[in-house]
Amino acid sequence: MSSRELIDEGKSVRDSASGRVAGVFIVVASTFAVLNALGLLPGLRDSTFVILGTASVFCTLYGLRQHRPKLRWPWWTITVALGLFVAGGAARATFGGVGDLTAHRSLIPDSITIPGYLLFGAGLSAIATARRRGQEGNLDTLLDALVAAMAAMALAWVYLITPNLVQHHAPLPVRVVLVAYPSVSVFMVSAIARIAFSPSTRRVPAFQLLMAAMACMLLGDVLYILVEPGVLIPPLWLLDLPYAFAFILFSGCVAHPSMATLCEPVSAEEAVPSQTRMNMVALALCVPSVVMLTRAETTASDRIALSAVVITLTGLASYRVLRALRAHARSEERLAHQAMHDHLTGLPNQLVIREALSEGFAEGRREQMAILFVDLDRFKLVNDTHGHSFGDELLVAVAARLRGVDENALVARVGGDEFVLVLRDIGSRSAAIAIAERVRHVFGEPFRLGTAEVYSSASVGIAFAMDAGPEVDAEDMIRDADTAMYEAKAHGRDSVAVFDPAMRERVTERLGLESDLRRALENRELRLAYQPVIRYPAGPIDSVEALARWNHETWGDVSPTRFVPVAEDTGLIVELGHWVIREACSALAGWRRTLPGAEHLQVGINLSARQFRDPTLLEVIQQALLDNDLPAEAVCLELTESLLIDEPETATELLSAFHALGIRLAIDDFGTGYSSLAYLKRFPVDVVKIDRSFVEGLNRADSSDETLVAAIVAMAGAMSMTTIAEGVETPAQETKLIGLGCDAGQGFLYCRPIPAEEIPAVLRRIAATESSLPSL
Questions:
Q1: b/e for 84-105, b at 16 or more Cβ within 10 A?
Q2: In angstroms, what is the C-alpha Rg of the chain?
């Protein structure tokens, strides 16, 4: 188990324990409060409130210490408020005065308790603000909370404040206190509403406990306000019971592990007003009118107060609606922009390109329009080497450079690393080609991204609207430029190509070839041919190279140079490669078991770049060896130099894994790529296959290829690598290769690639003669 998992497991255990502590405290404390209310604890009745309040303060401190919320000061503020509530309750038990409006001493507990309400409300407001920190809808939540508070104020004024104001026999300070309680309760309502208007909090246990505690506290305030003027005369223990439950439930809230989430900002999705919230706001807007209509008698002060509330609510509602309309307009504008622009670079997208082309065609400016399709070369290598975030930075930098190529061009991003420029007022074909060359040249300078410098190039395809018929639309133009871009890539990348109809025919043929290749793989129409590798100086055959062959029902034999690139581009090469591995290992196992002299025969299998990145490659090879009971050294994987140079880190890791298993590794077509054995020394390579272009030059007496081959053989021998010459076709080439110390040869001089069923005859012939090589 990792350290991260251990930490997470420990936190889960602590949270579970804290949840149990919260539950136990709520059950025990509530039982104590109920027993006291029923008169079963006569000796503790007068001190019950103080006992429960003190226990709640300690439970709150436990929760803060245990869960350590990111924003702590609101919770400490609320804890201080709880302490003031406990002190106020103790003072009330000492001085009494509840229900006696002439007793100034009743003001002592209230002067302690009312500041506690203000601190409690401030703490709740801070928690509500923290949940909406940095969000555009924070003001909207505040407005909705004010609407709810004004509705509560209307009710409080009519049913709580006004009755206390008419208690003329009570001293003014007492009446001020009686009015203060509903006022601070309204403040509490606004703070609670801001927290409650977050949909995500309703599923949090700590939130549910907090809301229950606030409901109990507000109920206690209402009872207290009604008791003071003598409207209600309940026993004192009943008056304290709602406050006791408020203490208990709030302490359970802080002790519960979910309390830490109450101060965490909600996501943008969670901040969207819910239907319940909108219904509550609508109901709150109706409250003052309903109160005015249902009261038969209202005083002038009531009418003035309710009118003020209605006016305030109308202003809040109007401002809220105005903000909602503005937000909706901004949202519509933002959605429209997002629909027409790329989110990463801010450039227009393909929809804008189509509209611009279609508009130009409709205005009859077809002769003046061209489109450039730009694709970054080897962009995947940047992503694989530096990461996708780095690749995104490169795309943004490329977009900035393309904007500066031509001020009249419309630049857009239409794919991962694909950009399009629409030229709407070109004077000639040469002007468009000149702009395309400028596009290519802006990649000449390195891109400075942070502390790194990245060099990149681009292939550009051009399509001219003047060359297209009237039936060609914007989509066709983009497709034609895309086709020309692939033609530029086929010619070595970092180049410009102009579309012509022949390209479309080649694309159509390629698409047909791809479709037929998929069908051929499904129907097992491909086969393997094997070309022997002859050990110098006089045999025998110690390995064969497996080569994929395809006999098409219409086109006949399709060259691998045609269908392998298609398979590579489409990803079919992975499926094709798996089939080659399984088929070659199966054939080799049969020969090694049944043919004399073939016990140590090996098979060479070519790997492409796409196969090399296949995460299942190692597993597939291991399974093929296991299924056919072959040792790992029976297989030799052949890779090109460019594959190793392009992805050196991946290559080193994967080749080391192969080498550790005992699988042999060969560099195919050596000399056509980086051509440095010193560089290749970093890879665990066993075999170097010298490219046929060097072997061909051995036929000429004055060729420098002989010197190059001699150097390759000498350096490979110094690093304990075997050398195999490819494309050996004449006895003269063979003689020179043997004289230079080459280890083996492969080519038409010895044998063309042949079907698997012909390999036994060749091996038997070699085994029978052992003194001459077959000539087939």
A1: bbbbbbbbbbeeebebebebee
A2: 42
Mean pLDDT of 493-498: 88
Taking the C-alpha atoms of residue 377 and residue 463, their distance in angstroms, rounded to an integer, is 20
Label each residue of 367-396 as H, E or C: HHCEEEEEEECCHHHHHHHHCHHHHHHHHH
Q: What is the pLDDT of residue 776?
A: 38
Q: Are 140 and 99 in contact (CB under 8 A)?
A: no
Measure the CA–CA gap between 458 and 420, rounded to whole angstroms. Answer: 12
Residue 721's region, left for phi above 0, alpha for psi from -120 to 50, else beta, is: beta
Calculated CA dihedral for residues 418, 424, 430, 431, nearest 10 degrees: -90
CA distances from 330 to 266, 272, 274, 348 (A): 21, 15, 20, 19
Looking at residue 461, its amino acid is G
pLDDT, one tens digit per residue, over 385-401 is: 778 888 899 999 999 99
* Whole-number Å distance between alpha carbons of 715 and 711: 6
Angle at 45 between CA 40 and CA 48, to 5 degrees: 110
Peptide bond just before 540 cis, omega within 30 deg = yes
Classify 480 as helix, strand or coil: helix
Strand, helix or coil for residue 580: helix
User: In this predicted structure, what is the pLDDT of residue 171?
Assistant: 65
| Contacts of the segment 128-134: beta carbons below 8 A, 24+ positions apart | 128/191, 128/194, 128/195, 129/194, 130/71, 130/74, 130/263, 130/264, 130/265, 131/195, 131/198, 131/201, 131/262, 131/263, 131/264, 131/265, 131/266, 132/194, 132/198, 132/265, 132/266, 132/271, 133/265, 134/265
Q: What's the rounded mean pLDDT across residues 227-238?
A: 60
Residue 342 phi/psi, 5-degree rounding, is: -80, 130
Amino acid at 430: S
Task: Name which of 635, 534, 539, 638 is nearest 592 in CA terms.
Answer: 635
String of DSSP letters for 487-522: HHHHTTSS-EEE--HHHHHHHHHHHHHHHHHHHHHH
> Which element (helix H / strand E) includes 703?
none
What confidence tens digit (pLDDT) does each residue in 171-191 have? 666 666 666 666 777 677 767
In this structure, are residues 484 and 498 in contact, taking their beta carbons and an 8 Å threshold?
yes
Q: In this predicted structure, what is the pLDDT of residue 6?
A: 43
- Alpha carbon 247 to its chain's center: 44
- Nearest by Cα to 313 from 519, 165, 526, 150: 150
The whole-number average pLDDT for the span 51-71 is 79
Six token digits for residue 677? 């054995």
Neighbours of 709 (CB within 10 A): 26
Q: Of 42-46, 76-80, 751-755, where does mean pLDDT reach its minimum?
A: 42-46
Q: Could you give the CA distance from residue 184 to residue 329 in angstroms, rounded to a whole number? A: 38
Q: For residue 686, what are the contacts with CB-CB under 8 A and spacing of at least 6?
A: 636, 664, 665, 666, 721, 722
Strands 722-726 and 687-690, how do they pair? parallel
pLDDT digits (tens, 9 = 90+) for 328-349: 667 677 777 777 888 888 899 8
Helix, strand, coil content of the chain in percent (nearest 5): 65, 10, 25
CA distance 746 to 531: 7
- 265 secondary structure, DSSP code: P
- Residue 318 neighbours by CB under 8 Å, 6+ apart: none
Distances (CA, A) of 300 to 170, 293, 306, 490: 22, 15, 10, 90
SS3 534: strand
CA–CA distances in Å: residue 71 to residues 124, 207, 213, 531, 727: 12, 16, 21, 73, 75
Q: CA-to-CA distance for 98 and 439, rounded, in angstroms?
A: 87
β-pair partners for 551:
557
At 708 the pLDDT is: 87
CB of 229 closer than 8 Å to CB of 164: yes
